[in-house]
Design a protein that fits this description.
The protein is built from 11 helices and 14 strands. It is α+β, with helices and mostly antiparallel strands and 409 residues long.
Length: 409
């Protein structure tokens, strides 16, 4: 239980820290911008040339400060046209065309309305919105009226500074905390109830019964290990979800990672008297990915095949290149020859804590989180998981990842 309390405290602290740091960053950037643009008139060499008739009288110092800021910043004219964008805006939000309305670059009704209100009222406005494709992301914009320094002809221009913060990590921290509390309380209730019952028995009828005490202590150890496995799995899943919107950049050899995962599972297969067969190509097949997370995927699928499909006596693991409509992929298949999975269960296999057979899963020390972890890792890697199963003939789990055409790192 201590593991869960410590993890929950860390998550809540991290969420508070992220929110406070982001708010402070916006306040500092706004103050610096106001000071820099008002400190001196814009010189001819300071004016940023843009399309059409629009000019952005930001000093070189102001542009340097805003380019160094971690948050996206867009400077708008009073009519909502873009005067200037900083580096973070270009990298995080995509392409902007200076001189065109902000609504052309960011088609977000909440943001457009907030810009209109701030322009009319002269007050600071906020807007929040979310995106669902390609992954769920959350944003907040702070729109602040700004008086720019007079231009060369003496006209002072009203403008708007739009700071956009990516709230995705903060939202994931909040959801991680909520999911952790809900799932942990649900899944830990059974082993905690068992431990409570055993303690009461040891304090009462079995107080002086040495054989019973030995037996109960073993059960307590098993239940404590179960709670630890659940907590570790929940934390692993939560960490993966936090990074779901950040695609890995390293290039990893899938063939070598599959071989490594298979060797990790081989002792388990030997104990279960299951033959582990590998069908791997001789040349490397690279993908952009996190090596440890990919090993976790392959290890989970192979171990599941051994545990739940080992009746067939063998598990076959293969890696191959396939040509798909969106481009070449690496296909990793784990095939068992066991009893198969009833078709009504297949669509729900990647749900948290979903088990085809609850008693068997607990007997084999399953947490019900393995395939949920696989699903979230593959989402981060832009991969897909397909499952084919036939009762009495076995199951095949296939992972497909975009092939990296360059050499593995």
């Amino acid at each position: 239980m201590a593991w869960g309390v410590v993890a929950l405290a860390c998550v809540m602290t991290a969420a508070f820290t992220v929110a406070s740091a982001a708010a402070a960053a916006i306040a500092i950037a706004l103050a610096a911008l106001a000071a820099l643009v008002a400190a001196r008139p814009a010189r001819a060499e300071d004016v940023v040339e843009v399309t059409g008739e629009v000019e952005a009288p930001l000093s070189e110092d102001a542009r340097a400060v805003l380019d160094a800021a971690p948050d996206a910043c867009v400077i708008l004219a009073s009519d909502g046209t873009i005067l200037w964008v900083n580096r973070a805006a270009r990298e995080q939000l995509g392409l902007f065309t200076v001189g065109r309305p902000i609504s052309f670059a960011l088609r977000v009704p909440e943001l457009v309305r907030a810009v209109e209100v701030a322009s009319r009222s002269g007050t600071q406005e906020r807007a929040r919105w979310s995106e669902k494709v390609p992954t769920s992301r959350w944003f907040e914009a702070v729109i602040s009226p700004l008086a720019l320094a007079p231009s060369a002809d003496g006209d002072a221009g009203a403008a708007l500074a739009v700071f956009v913060r990516d709230l995705t990590e903060q939202q994931r921290l909040d959801r991680m905390r909520e999911d952790f509390v809900a799932n942990a309380s649900h899944e830990l209730r059974t082993p905690l109830a068992a431990l409570t019952g055993i303690i009461e028995t040891l304090q009462g009828p079995a107080r002086d019964d040495a054989p019973a005490r030995t037996k109960f202590l073993e059960v307590m150890r098993e239940q404590a290990e179960r709670m630890k496995r659940l907590t570790d799995a929940l934390l692993s899943l939560s960490r993966i979800e936090m990074r779901a919107h950040v695609r890995p950049t390293d290039v990893v050899d899938c063939v070598e990672r599959v071989r490594y995962a298979a060797e990790m599972v081989r002792p388990v297969a030997a104990m279960a008297q299951v033959a582990l067969e590998l069908d791997l190509p001789g040349e490397p097949l690279g993908v952009r990915g996190d090596a440890d997370e990919l090993v976790q995927v392959f290890d989970n699928l192979i171990e599941n095949a051994v545990k739940y499909g080992g009746e067939g006596g063998r598990v076959r693991v293969s890696v191959r290149r396939e040509d798909a409509a969106a481009g070449p992929v690496v296909a990793i298949s784990v095939e068992d020859y066991g009893r198969g999975i009833p078709p009504e269960h297949v669509p729900r296999l990647t749900e948290r804590f979903y088990r085809v057979d609850v008693e068997e899963a607990r007997a084999r020390r399953g947490t019900g989180l393995g395939l949920a972890i696989v699903k979230h890792i593959l989402a981060r890697h832009r991969g897909r998981l397909t499952v084919r199963s036939q009762l009495g003939a076995g199951s095949t789990f296939t992972v497909r990842l975009p092939l990296h055409l360059g050499p593995p790192a």
